[in-house]
Amino acid sequence: MLYREAGQFKVSYQEDQQIFPIRQDRVGFIAILGFFFLAVPLVASEYWLQAILIPVLIFSLAAIGLNILTGYAGQLSLGSAAFMAVGAFGAYNFMLRVDGMPFLVALAIGGLCAAVVGVAFGLPSLRIKGFYLAVATLAAQFFIVWALVKFPWFSNNSSSGVISAQQIEILGFAFDTPVSKYLLTLGIVAVLALAAKNLVRSTTGRSWMAVRDMDVAAEVIGIRPMFAKLSAFAVSSFYCGVAGALYAYAYLGTVEPEGFNLDLSFKILFMIIIGGVGSIMGSFLGAAFIVLLPIFLNVAMHALFAGSMPAGLGSNLELIIFGGLIIFFLIVEPHGLARLWQIGKEKLRLWPFPH
Amino acid sequence: MKLKHTALIGAAVAGLLATGHAAAQEQFIGLPSYRVGPFGANGASLYGGWIDYMAMINARDGGINGVKLTWEECETEYNNARGVECYERLKTKGATGNTVFQPLSTGITYSVLEKVAQDKIPMVTIGYGRTDAADGRVFPWVFPMISTYWTQASAIINYLGTKEGGIDKLKGKKIGLLYHDSAYGKESHAILDKLAAKHGFTVEKIAVANPGNEQQAQWLQIRQMKPDYVILWGWGVMNPTALRTAAKTGYSRDKIVGVWWSGSEEDTIPAGDAAKGYTAAGFNVAGTNYPVVQEIQKHVYAKNAGNMADKDRVGSVLYNRGVVHGIITVEAIRKAQEKYGKGKPVTGEQARWGFENLDIDNARLTQLGAAGFMPDLKITCADHEGAGKVKFQQWDGTKWKVVTDWIQGDQSVVRPMIEESAAAYAKEKGITPRDCSKES
């Protein structure tokens, strides 16, 4: 009933090919955008903006990046955090060394640096597949973090390898309050997410999916696997790189190479597994789940058992419950949270008269 | 799923509201602790000691001039993003907000370095964090107290000098540096190069990749080079592995000197007999035979109110380090109360003044029952480090034994480096350093 699309006729090619072909989706999408752009900045506290919403958005972007590579092009990667690091350090160095560098350009260049590095480490994907490729990207993870620590040039000769991001300024407007940083992050993430949504249904996206499903068959029908795989690596790393630069500039302000360690790569991988492999929306749901759930558990534990149980036990319980919930969700819905939403949509189509 | 998520978020909000209350005459201290994750055991000891000291102050003295200390822990898992979340969550709690932020993690320190100045909450990083923050003119809100990494490196060299019978005897010696290959480990390079040039010894730097549980190659290299001493700049599992591998390759443990993050029971007990004779630096010492630790046992543990699940760890190096955190926090609040009103909770800004004017001399240390337990400490506007000295302890197979008095780092080398680095930071960030003659 709610999702019935009967009566929505498409009379032109343009209408047939839009990103959200169903009216309800369009309305919902605009409502969500309106809510996050207009309502949230008015009501959310500094804590919510700084500690919850900005990281969720940034990790969503990184998850979209990995989802393009793993979910759409079928290339398993464990190097997402390293590509984020390249983006962060790339943007930092261009801001530092080029006078009057506009922030958005530096952000894009940071992403491009990550894309170049991503393509370089994506080359083995032409020969090796699956778990073996994961090991090759694991090498990227260790090599990049090592290189950033090893060569002091990257961190402007800081004795500890730590960089501290410059002030964000666009057209003379300084983004220094939580609200402005939030809106900037949201704007960039929204644009890039829409671009990704569009990309995956284009020729490029279809060639990625063809390669994912069966690369020999894809080659037979005229798709160049080399181009498809390397473009997936490039686009994916670009997204991770931009996410990394935002992580440094809009979120933490100061980052060290070790912050982008293997744990973070795994976290991003978990986000797309929980959220839904091969789904842009799943990237957002997964990022929200992985970032918010541990915080929620910590708060809940304190509210429920404050003082009545040893602190160490509480912290361990949080991890146990977190792990348990991940397993629960994977058993109940192996295709992730995005799939749950899809099922819900199907049900809403028939509701309230299911047959 | 949407609905479920909204419910989750709603419950989280409710939880936040429910815990955000505090009565007047209470001083709130937010504790960004970690009890799980790779350094969970260290965090449990450190925060345990700190909490026990505050509980003892509440139980014995009824708080600071009648102001009860309250605290809340927030689990960071030693993870930067979680640390930032904890910082934001804790900063507005209590009657006057969070008094002081001490994350016990260099990564989290860097992540909130700029936020603390905006939010007017002092950050105290004892024995870790950003070294050049010791220049209080550039970093008014950050206090890397007691001793920085660079001072420690210099103190270790001075200690080796006394072992040789004079710092000039180090000329021509070869010192190996086995360091954790990370930002933390590389903090040692610049200062040791400088000291090597000054005193005429050579430094052989040998990197150990994280986590460092395999060091055969490194120790074979050390055996070939035959350094006179090896400085162990390690972290976590790297330390016991280094000691075990040294024993295996036949390098005498008497000649290995560790930094303070390599000098706890957690580092030596797993190494077993191989750790015997190993020496490490520390800005606090181990043992329960200090009045301050005995007071904690009397007022807290005797009433079964202690924070440590394993009571045997009371008096360990890291536990006592937590007690040092407690002493410094409490003394700074006391100092701030003297200026801004006794018996009233202080704000973060007032607490900052307390930290900046902290003066714990030897007489005060004796009153606190901590003479010899930690060095005397005097913080000024320009110098946020304070003491700049460490003691050396030797592991005798079962416990740490203090083998030296407080050994001072060479401030004539360290301080110019700190000022140079801080000035570079100030320039990059467009900060005008404070004029300390105008501070009261």
Automatic annotation (TrEMBL), chain A:
Protein topology in the membrane: Multi-pass membrane protein
InterPro entries, alphabetized: ABC_transp_permease (IPR001851), LivM-like (IPR043428)
Keywords, sorted A to Z: Cell membrane, Membrane, Transmembrane, Transmembrane helix
CDD domains per record: TM_PBP1_LivM_like (cd06581)
Localization annotation: Cell membrane
Regions that span the bilayer: 27-44, 50-69, 76-95, 101-123, 130-149, 182-200, 230-252, 264-281, 319-341
Protein name, as recorded: Branched-chain amino acid ABC transporter permease
Species this chain originates from: Aromatoleum buckelii
UniProtKB/TrEMBL annotation, chain B:
Position of the signal peptide: 1-24
Keywords: Signal
Transmembrane segments: none
Pfam families: Peripla_BP_6 (PF13458)
Keyword Manganese: no
Leucine-binding protein domain mapped to chain residues: 28-397
InterPro entries assigned to the protein according to its UniProt record, in alphabetical order: Leu-bd, Peripla_BP_I
PANTHER family, A to Z: BLR6548 PROTEIN
Family note: Belongs to the leucine-binding protein family.
Name of the protein: ABC transporter substrate-binding protein
